[in-house]
Design goal:
With 359 residues, the chain is α/β, with parallel strands linked by helices. The protein has two domains: 195 residues, Isopropylmalate Dehydrogenase (3-Layer(aba) Sandwich); 144 residues, Isopropylmalate Dehydrogenase. The protein is built from 13 helices and twelve strands. It has a ten-stranded mixed β-sheet with strand order 2-1-3-12-11-4-5-10-8-9, sandwiched between helices. A two-stranded antiparallel ribbon has the order 6-7. A hairpin with a 4-residue loop joins strand 11 and strand 12. Helix 1 packs across helix 11 and helix 9 packs parallel to helix 10. Bound molecules: 3-isopropylmalic acid (IPM) and manganese (II) ion. Manganese (II) ion binds next to helix 10.
Length: 359
């Protein structure tokens, strides 16, 4: 298969982790006889520094004409504590999601057996946890009108959802549930928010089309607690933009490291793949960043094009590296490997995948 993949490394640890994924994807292309073409572009603080624009036109054009985007991370401390900043790196990612119409963000969360003790949660609570969060990505409070009063004494963020936005998202989540354990949990705050009541009404009506899926509802505050108390109860979680952002960081505690969580953002035309973690600037250039979330995002990219065996080859390599402790320090305190070493190891596993047997 021929694929053109736009590479947007971004800020902080973004470039070093993305580099490992490109390496891994090249190994997949070689092994399975595909032609993957990679082209890099600027985004985030890196783009502001050079062009004063977190999403330069050339970057957007490249993404539009590519089959998929592999995204690193975004954010820079010099903007974090500066409420006066007019342009922020994050705007680059938000605009990219909006312009590409990437309305659904899919975040799988799984406890790796080998890493069960890495999590601060009790092993018996998380062993076997396996869920996927369907986070709406181009609506809600992230994209509503924003303003600060002239006197600086008040500020507003508007949260809006349309039935259409909810339905297209819910269809995807119901379909995912049909392929999994047939349980869908809508997380909202319908006891307080009007938009949440619209989500509940719309999703309930749609459920008639998916009679094999069991639909239930949780308020987001309770969901945050249940995620820690009993994560195994969840199969597919469907939720709006901001709740999904918060819950997915929380869910990463189950896997033992946020450095393991991958995501796919999809729309009708384009698709983007990125780790859920941020740019982790304190770790940049130290070779300590975990590349696995990015590498697993690359596996989701392959899944998106039905390259299932190829995606499995990546996931298998990741399993092996975890089994053999060829991991960065976030999940291997004693004898850790650098970002690049982990990437090299995955690359070599994929190149000779037939020769490896972990059992
Ligand atoms: C994420 C990130 C982004 C978000 C930021 C960087 C804008 O936290 O992808 O989860 O809030 O969506
Ligand atoms: Mn987030």
């Amino acid at each position: 298969m021929k694929l053109k993949i736009a590479i947007l490394p971004g800020d902080g640890i973004g470039p070093e982790i993305t580099q490992q994924s490109v390496k891994v994807l090249k190994a997949v292309a070689d092994r399975f006889d595909h032609q993957f073409e990679f082209e890099e572009a600027l985004v985030g603080a890196a783009a502001i520094d050079l062009l004063e624009n977190p999403l330069p036109d050339a970057t957007l054009e490249l993404c539009e004409k590519s089959d998929a985007v592999l995204f690193g991370a975004i954010g820079d401390p010099k903007y974090d504590n500066n409420p006066e900043a007019k342009v922020r790196p994050e705007q680059g990612l938000l605009k990219l999601r909006k312009e590409l119409g990437l309305f659904a963000n899919i975040r799988p969360v799984k406890a790796f057996d080998k890493l069960i003790d890495q999590s601060p949660l009790r092993p018996e609570r998380i062993q076997g946890a396996d869920m996927v969060i369907y986070r709406e990505l181009t609506g809600g409070i992230y994209f509503g009108d924003k303003s600060t009063a002239e006197d600086g004494q008040s500020a507003t963020d508007v949260c809006t959802y349309s039935v259409e936005e909810i339905e297209r998202m819910a269809h995807l989540a119901f379909k995912a549930a049909q392929q999994r354990s047939k349980k869908l949990t809508l997380v909202d705050k319908a006891n307080v928010l009007e938009t949440s009541r619209l989500w509940r009404k719309t999703v309930t009506a749609l459920a008639e089309k998916y009679p094999d899926v069991k639909l239930d509802f949780l308020y987001v505050d309770n969901a945050a607690m249940q995620m820690i108390l009993d994560p195994k109860q969840f199969d597919v979680i469907l939720t709006e933009n901001m709740f999904g952002d918060i819950l997915s960081d929380e869910a990463s505690v189950i896997g033992g490291s946020i450095g393991l969580l991958a995501s796919a953002s999809v729309g009708d035309k384009n698709a983007l793949f990125e780790p859920i973690h941020g740019s982790y600037p304190q770790a940049a250039h130290k070779g300590i960043a975990n590349p696995l979330a990015s590498v697993l995002s690359a596996a989701m990219l392959l899944d998106h094009f039905d390259l299932t065996e190829e995606a499995e080859a990546i996931r298998h390599a990741v399993e092996v590296s975890i089994q053999l402790n060829v991991c960065t320090q976030d999940i291997n305190k004693d004898n850790h490997y650098s970002t690049e070493k982990v990437g090299d190891f995955l690359e070599s596993l994929i190149s000779e995948v037939d020769n490896i047997n972990i059992n």
